[in-house]
Amino acid sequence: MLTAARAATLGGPEWLRERRAKAAEELAAMPRPSEKEEVWRYTPIDELELDDYEPLPAGAREDLGALGSAFVKGVVSDLPAYAALATVVDGSTVAVDRAGLPAPVRVGGLEGDPILGQVLDGGDALVRANDAFLPDAVVVDVPPGVALDAPVVIVHWCTAGVAPSTASFPRTVVRLGRGSSAQVVEVLAGAPGAGRGLVVPVTELSAGDGSQLSYAAVQVLGTEVWHIARVAAVAGRDATLRTFSMGLGAAYDRSRTDALAEGPGSTTELRSAYLGTGSQVHDIRTLQDHAAAHTTSDLLCKGAVAGTSRSVYSGLIRVRRGAVRTNAFQTNHNLVLEEGAHADSVPNLDIEENDVRCSHASTVGPVDEDQRYYLESRGIPPARAERLIVLGFFDDIVQRCPVPALVPRLRQEVEQRLVSALELRSGAHGAAGGRGDEDHG
Fold first, then answer.
1. Confidence check: pLDDT of 378 > 80
2. Model confidence over 90-149: pLDDT tens digits?
3. Is residue 423 very low, low, confident or very high in pLDDT (cuts 50, 70, 90)?
4. pTM of full prediction above 0.90
5. Which pLDDT score, from 0 to 100, does residue 122 have?
6. Is the pLDDT of residue 13 over 80?
7. Structural domain spans, the chain
8. I need a surface site. Which of 16, 244, 303, 376 has the fewest CB within 10 A?
9. Are 242 and 216 in contact (CB under 8 A)?
């Protein structure tokens, strides 16, 4: 059970224990998420019995194990270099390699700094659960004027689901001082589980005045796990904040990113991608929040669903009073690869000023028949033609990842899952209707 007594078993400084106790008390009194709420529409959230989950005991977080260690090595081998590497098991940092990190930059645990909640204070029941049961947090703190040449990499290895009804609560805080720059990569992965598990990561991003922060998150959890993530980000005066998220694993994969352009002249850029296979549900929510004048935001979300998977994208552009000369753009494109799959797209605008430019666009549909015909007319077999079209669709969004060193890994992850999904579909069609298309290319 997610109780105050369980939260009290976690260690840490006094301020953290008090914060956990307060969050656990608030959680006990809060209503649980419901599909009746607009922010949870089109989702299976009513199936979540939050109180049935058990946070993993503090003593269970010891090391990565063989499978986790191999995964971390694979991630690192795909990167030309990194400034620091933090490995985390169920929210507890087990190792930090600071080999390429300048001395003033901090990458590590919470220690004595009450840094939590400076960007995201409060929140729904799931955020409060993270506040109550996080064992620690990974803190990336870049002082003013410092520029990192290579990314800080954080790998979260989650064992939720290995034992049924277990939950993991990773937490990350990134803070950039005035005029600094950094790239941060978060990867969430885990071993195949014996039952449904729950992973609830919360990430706070703060880009100080004139700074440049690039952040990318990749989720490749096991297929029985529910992943419900929250990213809260704020950009100061003339700061540039770029975020990227890719959801590939999990049974239910939810990623919510709220980006606040708080300082005049600030820019936020949001990129999201997903690939649904089997019976997965991918749920992407975004908020482009403009609180100051002369701010810009640009969002692009692209994804595809195969099998009986489904997706929902719901995004809001909010322009507050006083945020004149705002420029905001929101685009969502979805490919539906099979008749049993489904995608919903719900763009929204909330504008309280007149002198602004805001636009949104969305598409939902199958693979373009003109593109398919063009390739097939040049001798490319149908199965390979479709695969090339879909890979090109994803390559457009992958290339926009704000951490260029991560692009090859993203391409590899997408291609492996896409090929598997299309082969599974071809096999099913072949079994049902005889011989299917062959790809000799």
1. yes
2. 999 889 999 889 989 999 998 777 899 999 998 999 999 999 999 999 999 999 999 999
3. confident
4. yes
5. 87
6. yes
7. 4-372
8. 376
9. no
